[in-house]
Amino acid sequence: MEEKPAPPRLDRIATQCLAVDTLTDGGLATGTITQIFGEKALGKSIISFQAACATVAAGSSAIILDTEQSYSSYLMPYWKGSMGRRFGKEVKVVDLKAERVPKSEKKNKTVTRGQLITELGSTLNRLGVAYTDAHLGSIANTLSPEFDVKLEEGTGPSVMVMQVPEVTDLLNLHGIDAAKEVSEGGRVELRLRGTPTYQSVLHQIIRKTNAKLLVYDSISAPFKASFPSTQDLPARSAGMAMIFAHAQRLCVEFGIAVLVISHVSIDPIKAWDRVPYGGVILGHDAKFSLELTKATATRNGHFNPQPINPQDEEGSAKAFWVARHPAMAEYSKFGYAKIDEEGFH
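^ that's the sequence the OP posted. Answer follows.
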């Protein structure tokens, strides 16, 4: 009987964090999605930025979708120089501005969403019509269905950061034109205003920059803000499903690695049980999943998990646990991670 050839080994993007790279068989796998989840203030954004800087140091660009708006205010001012020292070269960071663009009947005429809001406000003021900023924003979004992102030419490998705190903007970047609506019963729903397209703004950015890493930091924040109640779960699940279906296609077409950061949901009855926010949607799409905890944390119900680096236990501040892996049982292994002024080691 003829033996079947072994499946091709996925390329990896090393994060230079020993625990993460060991537990993922060499780093973030290209062509698929990796998830890192955990409670607040453990360093999830630091390992994300570190992975992006490692990608740039290796000669490729990385894209970070900053939904928590923390990179420009905290992460980059402190960690950009540290990562430069860590990788022995300056890491270029580019702030990508994504802005909704109204459709114009005049060719080659560029009108921004901000200009549209200004003109709408002036007209309403002249007519004596009362309005709020939310009213103007809603009208401008309706008249501006698409995003436009201007990319600098010849920037070389860089970390490109785009702030997208609003869930409908995040969907739009993935080619999904949707609006939030509230039903009579108070349920927040998503209404599609057109057929989703694969030729999205995100697709164009990856194609033009040859980026090899796409980071969502975090996927939880915009969905928590938009769908706070349990009755909103259908819209949350539908939105996430569309985003990750698009992301998976990008993985396959461009051979990129996708890193998704998510928070945890805690069962009040089983306080020890930490479940990643996003439920089965993200659970199925992420082929590798790691939980980030304090080094002293334990996981109930799992017999004798084995540390991959027991010699590093003393003095380590964090631990990464296998929550999902194609070849390992969940929580069967974990690794200690040291963190200092140059990130995770």
